[in-house]
UniProtKB/TrEMBL annotation:
An annotated GO cellular component: cytoplasm
GO molecular function: (R,R)-butanediol dehydrogenase activity; zinc ion binding
PROSITE patterns, per database record: ADH_ZINC (PS00059)
The protein's name: Enoyl reductase (ER) domain-containing protein
Provenance organism: Pseudocercospora musae
Membrane-spanning segments: none
Domain Enoyl reductase (ER): 10-356
Pfam families referenced in this protein's UniProt entry, alphabetically: ADH_N, ADH_zinc_N
Required co-factors: Zn(2+)
Matches recorded under InterPro entries: ADH-like_C, ADH-like_N, ADH_Zn_CS, ER, GroES-like_sf, NAD(P)-bd_dom_sf
GO biological process: butanediol biosynthetic process
SUPFAM superfamilies (UniProt xref): GroES-like, NAD(P)-binding Rossmann-fold domains
Top-level taxonomic group: Eukaryota
Length: 368
């Protein structure tokens, strides 16, 4: 067999299952058989009105050299089925979660360990180099993080979104005992709640979310309070829940101007507002007076760096992180558009994480 089936992005609202060449393993790389691949908000944005992170047609990504059509799937787990030369520490049969962010290793950010800020930043599964929505894919060995033998592969596919939340908490000024507000109860907001709980947060954690179902998820995953900002005055409600003080740290996983405005007012003096939301083409504004007279700080966190995947995997294995409830739907690769993206658009209140089960590839009729 020299070809395989893969879900590829051709253009906005043009996702196809194509028959493509099976990738060849290079020295220092491994080949995997993807098991499960998650669909995230960034995938949805690409589908609805992309490309955004995906390079535009005719303008290949600087590191992968690829432009559409590109294989999708950057949140994925799989099993190694072939090892390239010069690879050590990995073997055929290992369960893997792939850390998909690309980096050149030579720019100033990379030399400081900030691979998430690399000039060549991109994603396997968005920017090229294959992806998790294919029968086979390759990745540099250093991107492959071993999963415990007893960890289900569907749980392994949650490592990537959980690492985003873990990194956000780890890089923020949060300290045990601080009070926290999380704006948005989607996958990333919930990953922040789970990370806070795993990292020992026992003080007030508040989630602001309009969806009743997602507020329920937030409480299940460890939030002390979940409020509807369309009903409650958010800054006042937060102050009521924090003895009039406001929160020490606010994480914005929603990316809405009204959230920035109300969230900043909910932050205590010398507290910090942390943006982890993808804003797309929208550009938020900040009320500098609110920041100035409260000496409040604004910072951002993006994806993850070395050690974040490993920390998440360890926390999952020891039971500190229990993300199973995030999985709300499992679909086949031929259902990505209709049962995946459509569900995240039309039924988003009831969906958190939709997984694509690549074992169902036999059900797919591919475009030749």
């Amino acid at each position: 067999m020299s070809t395989m089936k893969a879900v590829r992005f051709h253009a906005a609202k043009d996702i196809r299952v194509d028959q493509v060449e099976i990738p060849v393993v290079k020295p220092g790389w491994v080949r995997l058989k993807p098991a499960f691949s998650g669909i995230w908000g960034s995938d949805l944005h690409e589908y609805l009105d992309g490309p955004h992170i995906i390079p535009p047609q005719g303008k290949p990504h600087g590191m992968t050299g690829e432009s559409p059509p590109v294989i999708l799937g950057h949140e994925f787990s799989g099993v190694i089925d072939q090892i390239g030369d010069e690879v050590v520490g990995l073997k055929v049969g290992d369960k893997i979660a792939v850390q998909p962010t690309t980096y050149d290793g030579s720019c100033r950010a990379c030399r400081r360990g900030l691979t998430n800020c690399c000039d060549a930043f991109g994603f396997i599964g968005l920017s090229g180099w294959g992806g998790g929505m294919s029968e086979f894919t390759t990745a540099p060995a250093e991107y492959c993080k071993k999963l415990p033998d007893d960890m289900p592969l569907e749980i392994g596919a949650l490592v990537e979104p959980l690492a985003v939340g873990w990194h956000a908490v780890a890089t923020s000024p949060y300290n045990p005992g601080d009070s926290v507000l999380v704006l948005g109860g989607g996958p990333i907001g919930l990953s922040v709640v789970l990370a806070l709980r795993a990292q020992g947060c026992k003080n007030v954690t508040i989630v602001s979310e309009v969806s009743q179902r997602r507020r329920g998820f937030a409480k299940t995953f460890g939030a002390h309070h979940a409020i509807d900002p369309t009903i409650d005055d958010l800054p006042q409600k937060v102050k009521d829940l924090t003895v009039g003080e406001g929160v020490d740290v606010c994480f914005d996983a929603a990316g809405l101007q009204i959230g920035v405005d109300s969230g900043m007012k909910a932050v205590t003096a010398r507290g910090t507002f942390v943006n982890i939301a993808l804003w797309g083409d929208r550009r938020p504004s900040l009320d500098m007076i609110d920041m100035l007279f409260g000496e409040r700080k604004y910072m951002a966190g993006v994806t993850y760096i070395a050690g974040d995947f490993e920390a998440v995997i360890d926390a999952m294995h020891t039971g500190k992180l229990k993300p199973e409830g995030m999985i709300t739907k499992v679909i086949g690769p031929h259902e990505v558009a209709e049962e995946g993206f459509k569900a995240l658009t039309d039924d988003k209140d009831n969906q958190v994480k939709i997984l694509v089960d690549m074992s169902r590839v036999a059900e797919v009729k591919a475009n030749e």
